[in-house]
Amino acid sequence: MDIQYEKERLDALTKEVQAEFDCKTCLVSLVAEDRQWFKSRQCMDVAETPRNISFCTYAIAEEEYLIVPDAKADKLFANNPLVTGSPFIRAYAGVILRNQDGYELGTLCLLYDQAREFTEDEINKLKHYARLVETIIFTTP
Fold first, then answer.
1. SS3 annotation, 104-134
2. In whole angstroms, what separates CA 137 from the centre of its chain?
3. By residue range, what is the domain housing residue 74?
4. Which residues of the chain have pLDDT under 50?
5. Cβ proximity of 14 and 40 under 8 Å
6. For the domain that residue 127 is a member of, what is the CATH number?
7. Residue 118 near residue 97 (C-beta atoms within 8 A)
8. What are the phi and psi torsion angles at 29 (to 5°)?
9. Which residues, in sequence order, are bridge partners of residue 66?
């Protein structure tokens, strides 16, 4: 697939997800050895962050997804520089992205600057969008 076409499709999808979930930021994040980088990003100025402060690093260690309703109240994330400083993450929802071989490579994630709970229906909808992202990134035309 043409890289520019892939980027356009991912950007269109993250814009749709951002609107659907009324979130501050929507990202397609890929986690590498020492960093996470954003294959698509809505309302995020930086193109990557260090892996050691990445919420997505914790998400890919889960079975399917990671939900953090209030990062300031979460012992694991309360002192994270992404919570205490820009982009001031307060709530996070990330669904794991897997390649064709089942390897966890990143997430489709939502960031909020306010605490927020997520319903089962919302989580299922986010999972659906994550499968669409996988199709765009990992399916050979």
1. EEEEEEEEECCCCCCCHHHHHHHHHHHHHHH
2. 14
3. 3-138
4. none
5. yes
6. 3.30.450.40
7. no
8. -110, 130
9. 94
